[in-house]
Specification:
Layout (H helix, E strand, L loop, with lengths): L2 E4 L3 H11 L5 E4 L3 H10 L15 E4 L10 E4 L6 H6 L8 E3 L12 H8 L5 E5 L4 H5 L4 E7 L2 H11 L4 E6 L2 H23 L4 H21 L4 H4 L2 H10 L6 H10 L4 H4 L8 H15 L5 H10 L4 H9 L16
């Protein structure tokens, strides 16, 4: 199975490295000409993954047309750019493996829904889970979810991408896998705020648990399954990104917790904290299906410039309720 990768950032480069370890050449599309040159000439990505020597089977290109003829495309561009990139890509019936995590602004569509809208003949799969790109590229043990409704394609993708240190667990719950990845980015910002504001480990543990409850409520409302949300693409990814400054979203939250302005923290255009763009979209999407997500609303307030003390005070002043309550109306 010939693999093409759309996106030359750290994660796209790491996945190209994984795919190349299977023995077949991999074509990686990158927007930046300097990345294309460096990968082809020096087998390195100096902008996004500088410390990793890449396989000589990874070939970079600046032309989306060079991806024609591959058997599957891994789509690893930021969620808000997926529509524009896929609109330029000749896909036809080529399977799309979506590796971006987010919800599209304006439409409130999951990335898989955007892809299906643009390329209705292309089978859709989602690869998601607790993954720091530099660890994957270095061959450190990692496990992810590969969700696809087509059982035969799911088996073929897992067989092609799995490596001894890169384990893929099968699922047919594409929606649940996507929602876990999108929501955890927003919750990671909240946990970073706890760290930056010095609110303590108790607060972070509580926030992870209550954030996971929000993820589950929203996921179920959008058609995902609870076991998916409790798996690698949901809870697993949440734990990773809520506990390490290697997460861009967590690092953004630390800065917010320290009182820095979101516009300054987001000024680095080479490093995208997806949660900052997903948060207001997620808040509105949750309201549309009648799901209460107070932690997500708090992140939106902080990104909008609200003071940390005021936002934390609002959360702590919420009415006491049952932990096992399956859902709550907006505003409770």
């Amino acid at each position: 199975m010939k693999i093409g990768v759309i996106g030359g950032g750290a994660w796209g480069t790491a996945l190209a490295q994984v795919a190349a370890a299977g023995g077949d050449p991999v074509t990686l599309w990158a927007r930046e000409p300097e990345v294309v040159r460096a990968i082809n000439d020096d087998h390195r990505n100096p902008l996004f993954l500088p410390d990793v020597m890449l396989s000589d089977r990874v070939h970079a290109t600046g032309s989306l047309g060079a991806l024609a003829g591959v058997d599957a495309l891994l789509v690893v561009t930021p969620a808000q750019h997926v529509r524009a990139i896929l609109a330029e890509t000749a896909v036809g019936a080529t399977p799309l493996v979506l590796c971006a995590k987010g919800i599209e602004a304006g439409t409130r569509l999951l990335v898989g829904e955007v892809a299906a809208q643009l390329h209705p003949r292309a089978p859709i799969a989602v690869l998601s889970g607790p993954t720091f790109a530099h660890e994957v590229a270095a061959g450190l043990p990692t496990a992810v979810t590969l969700a696809c409704g087509d059982a035969a394609l799911r088996r073929a993708l897992i067989a092609r991408l799995a490596r001894p240190a890169f384990r893929l667990y099968a699922s047919d719950d594409v929606t649940g896998a996507e929602i876990g990845g999108a929501v955890k980015n927003v919750l990671a910002i909240a946990c970073g705020v706890v760290e930056g504001a010095g609110l303590g480990q108790n607060a972070r543990a509580a926030l992870i648990a209550r954030g996971f409850a929000e993820m589950t409520r929203f996921g179920l409302a959008r058609g995902g399954r609870s076991e998916t949300l409790a798996g690698l693409s949901g809870l697993g990814d949440l734990v990773l990104t809520c506990s390490s400054a290697s997460s861009r979203n967590y690092a953004l939250g630390i800065g917010l917790g320290q009182g820095r302005a979101a516009r300054d923290l987001l000024a680095d255009k080479r490093s995208v904290a997806e949660g900052a763009f997903t948060a207001p979209v997620l808040r509105d999407a949750a309201r549309a299906v009648g799901v209460d997500m107070p932690v997500v609303a708090a992140v939106c307030a902080l990104l909008g410039g609200a003071a940390v003390d005021a936002v934390v005070g609002t959360l702590l002043a919420r009415p006491l309720t049952s932990e096992m309550e399956p859902s709550a109306a907006v505003g409770r």
